[in-house]
Amino acid sequence: MRIQIHHEIVQTFDPAAKGLIESLRLTPRSHEGQHVIEWRIDVEADCRLRRSEDAFGNQTDMFSLQGPVDTLRIVAEGVIETFDCAGVVRNSIERFPPELFLRDTQSTAPNAALRALGASAKGEGRIERLHALLVAVHERFEGVDAQSSGATSAAQALADGKGGARDLAHVFVAASRTMGVPARFVSGHYFDDGEATAQCHAWAEAYVEKIGWIGFDPVHCICPHESHVRIACGLDWLDAAPVRAASPGTIGETTSIRVRQPGQHQSASARTQSQQ
Amino acid sequence: MVEQTFWDEMTGGGADVRTVYGRVDEWLRNTPPDVLAARRTQAELLFRRIGITFAVYGEKDAAERLIPFDIIPRVIGQGEWGRMEAGLIQRVKAINAFLCDIYGPREILRAGIIPSDLVFGNPAFRPEMAGKRAPHDVWVHIAGIDMVRTGEDEFYVLEDNARTPSGVSYMLENREVMMRLLPDLFSNHRIAPVENYTDLLLNCLRSVAPPRSGGEPVVALLTPGLYNSAYYEHSFLADRLGVELVEGHDLSVRDGIVYMRTTQGPRRVDVLYRRIDDDFIDPLAFRPDSVLGVPGLLDAYAAGNITLANAIGAGVADDKAIYTYMPEIVKFYLGEEAILKNVPTWRCREADALKYVREHIGELVIKEVNGSGGYGMLVGPHATRAEIAEFEKKLVAQPDNYIAQPTLSLSTCPAFVEEGVAPRHVDLRPFVLTGAEGSRVVPGGLTRVAMRKGSLVVNSSQGGGTKDTWVIEDA
Q1: Is any Cβ of chain B less than 8 angstroms from the Cβ of A55?
Q2: Interfacial A residues in 213-252 facing B (CB < 8 Å)
Q3: Cβ contacts (< 8 Å) between A102 and chain B: which residues?
């Protein structure tokens, strides 16, 4: 499926930021399930984008600028072709052996509840167990407003019983690691039948021998397919966050994503606002 | 407790005084205790005036206090020091090769010398550094290697410190105070100098600066600030080095270049001697809630515009679990046998070892793999039954987190304590500096002494003291 994406982030600073430095992970890379046809990033300010690849193989753009800055618009847009690979991610850029993804981080530190969740996922083989986990996580958060996300960690989100895509992905990743299965966090976009998610989407990937990395999207209870655009991955949200900024003032952030299939008139868009 | 015999560095366990201690022994015999006591009081006054203090975490009242200083010097002969020095340089060379490897091709893992989960699962391993090279392949510019002695030729490495080892200011100040207090004793020894340490350090830091045209490289010392237990040392070293002492908010990164705020406007920095932990050093790359760090520092490092000493991620080499493999690490990279011995260590992650440790828990010292400063350890022979039971619970719950070692018969040195001159246990932390042109070790290092009788814990956070360490020409 050919998808055109227009991802716009508007940041507001109060008080105006004297200086600003940010790192962006907004550029998808190609692998067997997706082919990036064209892509560009634009920061509407007088600054230089410095592109590099981070340790996990994600394309990272850094920029710094001198203030005062009260509003900043960042746009990432392009065209991408996706293919249904039943969730299997092949020919992606891998800088580490899967084993690295057994590491805990602050947001994926296990506790008794996460271990119990992992242990409850039963099945013949690893794939079956992961699917059982997918269903278990999905059901645990069923009917929950997917946009709300105040939790700081997988353990917290599970205890609260609510959270957005990011939290569900953290819970899946953390529980999967307690099962001894390497798992990682993925950020990206989701597009289906003219509906765009209003936020950047997030899901998980787990490693299965002889197959490789397989995506699991606990929000939709599916393995990612044509509707998923994979942007970045890492041990947790922080490694794959679309934007990381350091500024002493408060940052308000409005994200809007417009997704459409070229050649068709239908388009989907959504907006969210957040305060940090 | 059974009375153990310990090797004494002055007597060597025999009736005669070892040659290197000849003149110190003479001085001790000719100096009445009240003169020693007066000297000690003077020393304390000097330290108070200098303001050298140390914060002990977990103590309510005294936020900062004086480390006890013992006025009797520890003496090491040039010959025995030479062997130690060769061993230290070899060890640090291997540590740097190890870090180049695990953040690069990871050959040691492929060769199966070290279990890969010890590296990949290690909290001190920084995935962010994988694929990055340290300038001149030096990751650890300043290493503090903790050593103990158990006999004439028996030296063991207790622990490597490859992150931000502290204590060197005590080495330097102990020497200064001793020279003022005991000039006569000084003049009849030929003592290798230590005061050139800061010159060597500055040369070392400048030697690894990123190449750029024009002028001397600019070096700065990055401290977490006033509330850090080693803040005194940070300000002391910055002063002696003649470099700026900066905190995170004094620095900023623009287009991959690090600048420091000065009264004359922003000034580019080439080398940061950082005394701030990895976790807090860059909120854009590590803990986002850190207010101590410099956003964008990792990116500037990756761009080759700044050198960090020590490099981010170096801590994986001083991890206590990795330590147990150090003889193999030396052999793998250098093709040599390790000159310095490791203390025999049981890795509790291995079932047989855990069984042994539980059976002999009362005889062993058990340490957390990632602990430091003497926190979270059990000294079996000195622990109560309840303490042992409590600790064993933690050990069984998380065996991977612990290693165990026999209680070593640490050597003793004469110390001036309440009951007069008496032997007390000591260790030694020499500081190994590594720059583009190789490694240098200032002769001696910081001797820590357990001031309580029979105590083997020398950590300053646990009430240990320090003394001056003399490397003297063999008579």
Answers
A1: yes
A2: 235, 238, 244-246
A3: 117, 120-121
A262 with A201, same domain: the answer is no
- Domain containing residue A6: CATH number: 2.60.40.2250
**Which structural domain range is residue A199 located in?**
84-240
Same domain as A216, residue A193: yes
Find out whether the peptide bond into B370 is cis, omega within 30 degrees of 0. no
* Owner of token pair 């515009």: B305
Quick check: B366 and B347 in contact, CB under 8 A?
no
Residues A41, A115 within the same domain: no
Residue B349 is given by DSSP the state T
CA distance B381 to B396: 19
Contact A55 B256 (CB under 8 A): no
Q: How many domains is chain A built from?
A: 2
Chain centre to alpha carbon of residue A10: 19
Residue of A nearest to B257 (CA): A64
Q: What is the 3-state secondary structure (H, E, C) of A107-170?
A: HHCCCHHHHHHHHHCCCCCHHHHHHHHHHHHHHHCCCCCCCCCCCCCHHHHHHHCCCCHHHHHH
Inspect the interface and report whether the beta carbons of B128 and A54 lie closer than 8 Å.
yes
- DSSP code for B288: T
Q: Residue B376 and residue B189: Cα distance in Å, rounded?
A: 41
Q: CA nearest B126 in A: which residue?
A: A55
Residue B89, Cα to own-chain centre: how many angstroms? 14
Whether B120 and A100 lie within 8 Å, measured CB to CB: yes
Tell me whether residues A50 and B255 touch, CB distance under 8 A.
yes
Q: CA–CA separation, B17 vs A150, rounded Å? A: 70
Kindly determine whether residue B117 and residue A99, on different chains, have CB atoms separated by under 8 Å: yes
Written as six digits, the tokens of A26 are 């907004």
Length of chain B: 475
Check whether the bond before A68 is cis (ω within 30° of 0).
yes
* Minimum Cα–Cα distance from B282: chain A residue: A246
Q: Could you give the CA distance from residue B129 to residue A55 in angstroms, rounded to a whole number?
A: 7
The whole-angstrom distance between residue B113's C-alpha and the CA centroid of its chain comes to: 26
Report the gap between the CA of A177 and the closest CA in chain B (Å).
12
Q: What tokens does A142 get?
A: 């069923």
Which residues in chain A have Cβ-Cβ distances shorter than 8 Å to B285? 23
In DSSP terms, which residues pair with A9 in a beta bridge?
Answer: A74, A255
For residue B251, give the nearest of B281, B277, B278 by alpha carbon: B281
What does the pLDDT profile of chain B (475 residues) look like in tens digits? Answer: 344 578 999 998 888 899 999 999 999 999 999 999 999 999 988 888 876 666 555 555 545 567 889 999 999 999 999 999 999 999 999 999 999 999 999 999 999 999 999 999 999 999 999 999 999 999 999 999 999 999 988 899 999 999 999 999 999 999 999 999 999 999 989 999 999 999 999 999 999 999 876 788 999 999 999 888 889 999 999 999 999 999 999 999 999 999 999 999 999 999 999 999 999 999 999 998 888 999 999 999 999 999 999 999 999 999 888 999 999 999 999 999 999 999 989 999 889 999 999 999 988 989 887 655 556 788 888 888 898 998 999 899 889 889 899 988 889 999 999 888 999 999 999 999 999 999 999 999 999 999 888 777 777 666 789 999 999 987 5
What would the DSSP string read from start to end of B109-159?
A: HHTTSS-HHHHHT-TT--GGGTT---GGG-S-SEEEEEEEEEETTEEEEEE
User: CATH number for the domain including A142?
Assistant: 3.10.620.30
Give the pTM.
Answer: 0.92
**Which CATH code for domain B344-407?**
3.30.1490.270
Statement to judge: residues A93 and A186 lie in one domain? yes
Asked if A99 and B116 come within 8 Å (Cβ–Cβ), the reply is yes
> Long-range CB contacts (< 8 A, 24+ apart) of A94-98?
A94/A57, A95/A55, A95/A56, A95/A57, A95/B130, A95/B131, A96/A55, A96/A56, A96/B120, A96/B127, A96/B130, A97/B116, A97/B120, A98/A182, A98/A207, A98/A213
